[in-house]
Every structure is written in structure tokens, then in C-alpha cells.
Amino acid sequence: MIKKRGTSLAFFLPLNMYSLLRNFLFLFDAEKVHYFTINALKFTLKIPFAKRLFSNFFVVNNPKLERKILGLTFKNPVGLAAGFDKNATMFNDLAYCGFGFIEIGTLTPKGQAGNDKPRLFRLKKDEAILNRMGFNNDGVEIAIEQLKNRKHKDLIIGGNIGKNKTTPNEEANTDYLIAFEKLFPYVDYFVVNVSSPNTPNLRALQDKEPLTKLLSELKQANCLKSNPKPILLKIAPDLTNEQLDDVVEIITTTKTDGVIATNTTIDREKLITPKSEVEKLGAGGVSGKPLTNRSTEVIRYLHEKSNAAFPIIGVGGIHSAEDAIDKLKAGASLIQIYTGFIYEGPILVKKINQQILKENL
């Protein structure tokens, strides 16, 4: 059992070695370590029997975990949030970690470098991450080439889409429509990301008028398809109740299929890390444990305010099975993990699925 928390090296290291190597790796740049562990996972899974060992240890196969939501069948309700597999290079490998679905992206029509480095930081005292990545990705066309090599037919893939940094908000809808059209044959559902704090003025698209227009145009494009796919809206945790009321109204009016609650927060008031240390790191959104309670509050509010009119995928600060259960009981139909996955490793996916079975949820 892992008693200490660390990076995603929990993928492949023997458990008794993990904490020592974690402390060593925490001395290095978080983004470089992320890519190192990704490459190490790929290498490990090429070893004979490694895939079988991963599946035997992390995957919980039980028909009681299956969820039929959004017109899709999820083999279990635990997913990986967008941001981890930005360019769709890892989803085939991550399937061996027990996920029921994986969300790729955020993808933009054109590839872009994102914000200047360093831009990813660990807040170890808070068991959190601060990032200002800025939608760094290779572009939708590159991701499509990866998605053509999809090996796990029962793994649901979501496509998280955004606008390019250089595209003004007045032309943002075009970017979202381009990404939607190109990705359509290759993903099972879409997520409209207007809530990242790391692209200038992006969150302004959450305002009632531009958001209604964007979702309406995407819905119209979707209805022209012979097999329309679910479209969800990802929202920020920093919205007021009045703004959440608007979200409920917009989702209902535009007949958008659901909501992902929530993205990272710009609120730093509850951080344990000294304010001076956080200020030195600069701008960015915070994910992880500081977001646990707020994201659950948002889920509960949307669920109750809408009378459960649409599915909610709960994400934000899930570091234990209990955190996941809280979100499901608050009204989430599915949950996603990201920072908790980095700190706890894939054993977290297994623990959540086992607890869901135990509580018969």
C-alpha cells in the first residue's frame, strides 16, 4: 500500500520503491517528469506480460460498474480528465490502468506551444498542482492520426476542444466548429472548454450571450450528422450561484447534453503553501485537494437546481475513493480524476471502482 503520495511513477514502480524515487523526482521540473513517466509507461507495457499484469492489478471487471449515460456505455464510471493525454498519444496505454473512459485534449484547430515554461508546478503541502499550460497541443490533425490506432473498443474516448490563443473571442466559434468537425469520426463525445484560466479572455466565453451562441452553433452542426454525439460544457469552479443558474438555463435552452464540473480554480485563499511561495510561481489554475469541496458543491447545486435534468461528470480534488463517492452522491453520473491520479497512481482508479461496488452505487 502506498502511504505517501507522489508522481505518476506509481504506474510501473514496485510499491516499496515508489516513495523514495518520488522524493527524488520532485526535485526536478514537473513537466519534464510528466513526460518521462509517460515514456516509461509506454516502455514498460512493451515488456512481455506487462499488459496482463497491469490489467490484473488495476482493472476491475464487473458488470455492476457499467453505466449507460449520454447514449453511451461506460464499462465503469471512472475517467481520466483532459490535460493528461493532450495529443491522444497515451489512451491505448492508459486503458491498462482501469479507466472506463479517457478525455483527450484540450485540442485546438492549429498546434500551439502554449505558455512559456516553466508552467507546471507541484504544491506538495496542498497535494495540488498549479498550471498555466495554455492549451499546448500539436493540433487536431495530429491527434486524429493517433486516434486512428484505437485498440480498446470498449474504452470511451472524449474530445475536449478549445480555441487557439491567437483567435479573438469574436471568431472563437469558428475554432470550436473546426475542431468539432474534424474530430467527429474519432471520438465518442465532445467537451467544450471555455473555462481554462490560462488562455487570455477565454473565460469571457462563459458569459450568457456568447456561450448560448457557441453551444447553439455546435448543437446545430451536431444535428446535421446522421449519428449526433453528446456535447458537454466544462465549467469553472469560480462561478457564482447566479452564473450557475445561467448555466442551467443555457444547457436547457440549447439542449446541450451535460456538464463537466469543474475545471481548475483561480482561488488561492485556502492553500496551505505560503502565499509568498505561490506568488513566486505566477499565474495559473489550481487543481487537486484545494478543489475537492468546491467542485462537489457545484455538482450538488447544478443537480438540485436543474432537478437532475442533465448528466454531470464530476471532477476536481478526487484523491480517494471517498472523494469520488461524495461526488456521485452529490449528483454526478460519472467522475474524472487528474491530480489525484498523479499523486496516488492508478491504484486510485481501482479503489474507487471497488468502493462503488461496495456501496452498490
Element layout with pairings:
Elements: H1 15-25, H2 30-44, H3 50-58, E1 67-69, E2 72-74, E3 78-80, H4 91-94, E4 101-107, E5 120-123, E6 128-131, H5 140-147, E7 156-161, H6 172-183, E8 189-193, H7 208-223, E9 231-235, H8 241-254, E10 258-261, H9 275-281, E11 285-288, H10 292-305, E12 312-315, H11 321-330, E13 334-337, H12 339-344, H13 347-359
Parallel strand pairs: 3-4, 3-13, 4-7, 7-8, 8-9, 9-10, 10-12, 12-13
Antiparallel strand pairs: 1-2, 5-6, 6-11
Helix pairs in contact: 6-7, 7-8, 8-10, 10-11, 11-13
Description:
The chain is α/β, with parallel strands linked by helices and 361 residues long. It has one domain: Alpha-Beta Barrel (TIM Barrel). The protein has helices spanning 15-25, 30-44, 50-58, 91-94, 140-147, 172-183, 208-223, 241-254, 275-281, 292-305, 321-330, 339-344, 347-359; strands spanning 67-69, 72-74, 78-80, 101-107, 120-123, 128-131, 156-161, 189-193, 231-235, 258-261, 285-288, 312-315, 334-337. Helix 11 (321-330) links the parallel strand 12 (312-315) and strand 13 (334-337). Helix 6 (172-183) runs parallel beside helix 7 and helix 10 packs parallel to helix 11 (321-330).
Radius of gyration over all CA atoms, rounded: 19 Å
- Please list the strands of the largest sheet in the order they lie side by side: 3-4-7-8-9-10-12-13
Return the structural class: alpha/beta
SSE series:
HHHEEEHEEEHEHEHEHEHEHEHEHH
Number of domains: 1
Q: The biggest beta sheet, please? A: 8 strands, parallel, barrel
What is the level-2 CATH architecture name?
Alpha-Beta Barrel
Proportion of helical residues: 25-40%
- Could you tell me the CATH topology label: TIM Barrel
The amount of beta strand, in percent, is 15-25%
Task: Using the alpha-carbon principal axes, give the shape.
Answer: globular
Give the rounded overall mean pLDDT.
Answer: 93
What is the rounded distance between the termini?
Answer: 25 Å
- Uncertain residue segments: 1-16
- CATH class call: Alpha Beta
